[in-house]
Design goal:
Blueprint lengths: L12 H23 L10 H16 L6 H12 L3
C-alpha cells in the first residue's frame, strides 16, 4: 500500500485565506455554470444569484403544475434565456 499524503493545514490567518480561496473558487465555478456567455464571464452579482437559486427551488417544488409557468418565465427573464 502507498503511504497516504499528509494534508497541509494552514495556521491562523492563513487558514481563513485558504477557506476564502476555496469559497471563491466554488462561487466562480457556480457563476461560470449559470452565467456562461460564450466563454465571457460577467461580474458576479450575489443578489441575482440568490434570486436564481430561490426561483430554482420554487420551480422544483411546483414542477409539472400550472403554477410553474410564471416562475419559469421569471427565471428565463432573469437569466436571459428564451
Amino acid at each position: 500500500m502507498k503511504p497516504k499524503k499528509k494534508k497541509v493545514v494552514a495556521k491562523g490567518a492563513d487558514r481563513a485565506d485558504v477557506r476564502g480561496d476555496r469559497k471563491a473558487a466554488r462561487i466562480n465555478k457556480r457563476q461560470k455554470r449559470k452565467y456562461d456567455d460564450g466563454g465571457k464571464l460577467p461580474s458576479y452579482d450575489p443578489r441575482k444569484a440568490a434570486m436564481m437559486r430561490g426561483l430554482e427551488a420554487q420551480i422544483k417544488k411546483v414542477k409539472g403544475t400550472p403554477a410553474a409557468k410564471p416562475l419559469v418565465e421569471k427565471y428565463r427573464k432573469l437569466t436571459g434565456t428564451k
